[in-house]
Every structure is written in C-alpha cells, then in structure tokens.
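Structure in, sequence out. Go:
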C-alpha cells in the first residue's frame, strides 16, 4: 500500500470515530436517563399503587435491556473499524497495533462515561491510559513517518528497562530482569502450527525492529488465543503449552493497552519446540478447546490444505489460458507503488518443485518469472514470504500440478537485495535474479511432510 493512502485511511478513521462518539453519546444519554428514572421509581415505589408500580418498573426494565442491546450493537460498529482500516502487512504492523488500541480506547472510555454518570465503579487509571492512547493516535495522524514506524519510535534504556515511546508517551517496556515461569502459552493458526510441528521450529518476527530475535509467550490461555486470531479470524487456533524454566525469560509490559495476561519473551531467533513442549490444544471455530496430539494437528491441517492447493492449481490453470484473478493488481505494476524493507540479515522463504530446484543448482541463480500472458505483474519477479506455511503453499501447488506431493523450500538470506513489500499479507518480492549462494537452508518435503534439512551454513 502506498504510504499516502494509509495516511488518508488514518484520517478517515479519526473522522469515523468522531461520528461514532456522537452516536454513542446520544444513545448513552438516553440510557442513563432511563436508568436514573428506573432507580427513582424503585426508591419511591411505596407511594404507588402496587399494580401500577409493577407495570411501570417492568416497562423500565424492558427499555433498559433494549438500550443495553443497542449500545452493544453500536460498540460492534467501532470494533469493525479495526478490520476496515488495518492491514496485515508487516511493514505497517505497528500502525495496525495503534489502530486496534485506539479503537478499543475510544470504546472503553465511552462505556466509562456511562459508569461515571451512574456512579458505578470503573477504572480511572484505564481511563487516563485510554486518553493517552487517543492522544498518540491524533498526533500520529497529523505528523508521522508512514514509510517506517521506527522513525516515530523513541527507545530509551533506564536501569533494567528498555522503554519504547511514541510522541514521548511510553507504549511498552521490556523488563530485562529474569522471570521465573514454568508454564507459558503460544497461540497460532492451524496452518502455521503444522509447519512449526513438522519443522520443530518456532521463529521470531524479525521484520519488526523491537521484536527482532524475540519469541513471545503468554501466561494466559485467552490471551494466547486472541494473539492467534490476530492473523486469521476464520481459522482454528493451536495452543502450544511450554515449560521454559531452563531458559532466560524476560517480560514485556504494555503501558497503555490492557491484556488478559502477561507477555513474556526469550531472546533468540529460533526455538526447537520439542525440547520444551508439554501439551498441544486445538481451539475450534466455536471456541471449544480440547487437548490433541501433534499427529492430530497434522491430520486436520492436511484436510484443510486441500482447499488451498486446489485454489492455487485453479489460479495457475487460468493463467495458462490468459485469465488473471488479480487484474486489478496487474494495473498497479509501477514499482513506485511498493515500499522496500530493510533486507540486512532478512531471511525469507521460497518453495518450488524439485525440478525447478535442480535448475537453480545447475544455473547457480534463481531466475524470476518470465511468463507474461495475462499476469504482467509477476514478470521479472521472485516471490518470497516470511510465513513458512504460506511459502510452502506455492510448493504444494507446484507439486499438485505435477501430480506429485514433493517439493523444496529454501531459506534465503536477502542481505544486499532490494526487497519489496507486496500488497498481499506475508508476501515480498525481488526484481531480477537471486544468486544461489544466498540460499542458507534447504527443506525437502515428500507427501507434504518434512523429510530432511540441509544447513548450508554449517
């Protein structure tokens, strides 16, 4: 996405949120008045005829329930703004984080207003934190660097804390005092879980500076489920339960955003999970949680992946006939529409058929797509992903077309290359060739199962 488009959407969100606040305020005032009259009626009920009193209070109770349902519907409107205005692209990950935090702050404070007017208990501390979050959003909207969030981020070290601030307001801190935690959770989507299990590998998100070489966990199950759902609302979630007591564990404290649990991290790029894994749980689409085996996760994911492979095959067959599913993206082939990402020590994945891999070995280079036909955008580009399962889907599609279920996935060091961020989540591309010596690891899959790994750096 172009940066100025994102800036436009941020400003549009602010305008929509302002209109939403007016709508919520009007509904809240009506609700508050009804509740106050209801409480007054109860307090002077003795002066009423008993029958009239019961009839009146019954009417109030129904009206209050109707207003409460209406207020919930209004809240759902602003929660949908998070989906409407945010994008999964890692380059703007922190803007998405700010959007979600802003939306929740506006909604929460609108409900605190009701509590205050009705003399109910509420968190004044949370109200003040929400006000600061709204202030950050306002200032970012007016004056922000949309090309790189790091340029808006201030990092300070104070004693045993690393504090991350925006507009001089702290967002979160990394506490560098060792924590003692025996039981921690990590939630992810079903498809990501299958790659984590098969490859015995949990990776850090190195495309975000303040999360680089950190792998995060929670001490709360619901918190881990929420984290997994950030990446897909329509996927089963897999929960990994770990015993990390033998590792150095640190804590991240969010200053303004409330969490259901506490967030912890270990400092490493990759973790071999089988040394620390205690249990695996599956959360289905209805929210039911049940303990399952790793083999069962693979079995479920295999069934789900059939639809994904079928879609990739259909897309490729249509391309061969000169039909593009993404003709709107083809029109936006001007390279100026895409942002680059810092490629220093950046590792991305690319999967392909065994036949194509043999050509890479023979030629000493990875060659880009040279087929024009309808899909002009793909011409001259090599596509990669930071999501292992996403990258594997391309190999799965290639192998299905070739009527095999065998493919190769490459881990590539993109240092020195211009890496562009695609419109699609988790997807990147390089224009031109990539030398074979940039390949650092090779993963071979047969029947969609990892058979062996070759580490070219050892």
């Amino acid at each position: 996405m172009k940066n100025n488009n994102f800036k436009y959407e941020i400003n549009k969100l602010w305008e929509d949120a302002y209109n939403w606040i007016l709508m919520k305020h009007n509904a809240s005032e009506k609700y508050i008045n009804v509740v106050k009259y209801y409480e007054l009626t109860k307090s002077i009920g003795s002066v009423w005829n008993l029958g009239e009193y019961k009839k009146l209070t019954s009417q109030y109770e129904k009206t209050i329930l109707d207003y409460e349902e209406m207020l919930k519907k209004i809240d759902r409107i602003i929660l949908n703004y998070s989906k409407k205005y945010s994008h999964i692209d890692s380059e703007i990950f922190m803007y998405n984080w700010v959007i979600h935090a802003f939306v929740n702050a506006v909604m929460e404070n609108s409900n605190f207003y009701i509590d205050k007017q009705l003399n109910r208990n509420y968190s004044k501390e949370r109200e003040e934190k929400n006000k600061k979050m709204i202030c950050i959003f306002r200032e970012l909207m007016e004056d922000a660097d949309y090309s790189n969030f790091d340029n808006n981020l201030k990092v300070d070290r104070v004693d045993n804390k690393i504090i991350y601030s925006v507009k001089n307001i702290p967002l979160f801190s990394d506490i560098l005092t060792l924590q003692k935690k025996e039981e921690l959770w990590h939630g992810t989507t079903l498809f990501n879980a299958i790659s984590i299990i098969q490859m015995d590998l949990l990776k850090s998100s190195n495309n975000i500076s303040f999360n680089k070489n950190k792998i995060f966990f929670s001490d709360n199950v619901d918190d881990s489920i929420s984290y997994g759902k950030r990446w897909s609302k329509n996927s089963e979630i897999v929960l990994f339960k770990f015993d990390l007591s033998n590792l150095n564990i640190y804590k991240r404290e969010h200053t303004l955003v409330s969490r259901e649990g506490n967030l912890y991290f270990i400092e490493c790029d990759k973790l071999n999970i089988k040394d620390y894994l205690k249990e695996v749980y599956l959360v289905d689409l209805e929210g039911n949680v049940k303990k399952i085996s790793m083999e069962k996760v693979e079995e479920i994911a295999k069934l789900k992946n059939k639809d994904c492979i079928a879609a990739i095959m259909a897309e490729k067959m249509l391309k061969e006939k000169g039909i593009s599913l993404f003709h709107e993206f083809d029109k936006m082939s001007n390279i100026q529409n895409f942002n680059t990402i810092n490629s220093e020590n950046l590792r991305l994945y690319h999967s392909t058929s065994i036949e194509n891999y043999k050509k890479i070995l023979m030629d000493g280079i990875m060659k880009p797509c040279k087929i024009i036909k309808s899909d002009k955008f793909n011409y001259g580009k090599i596509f990669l992903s930071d999501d292992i399962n996403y990258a594997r889907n391309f190999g799965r599609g290639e192998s299905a077309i070739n009527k095999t279920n065998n493919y190769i996935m490459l881990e590539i060091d993109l240092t020195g290359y211009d890496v562009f961020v695609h419109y699609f989540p988790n997807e990147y591309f390089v224009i031109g060739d990539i030398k074979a010596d940039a390949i650092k690891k090779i993963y071979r899959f047969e029947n969609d199962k990892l058979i062996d790994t070759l580490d070219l750096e050892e």
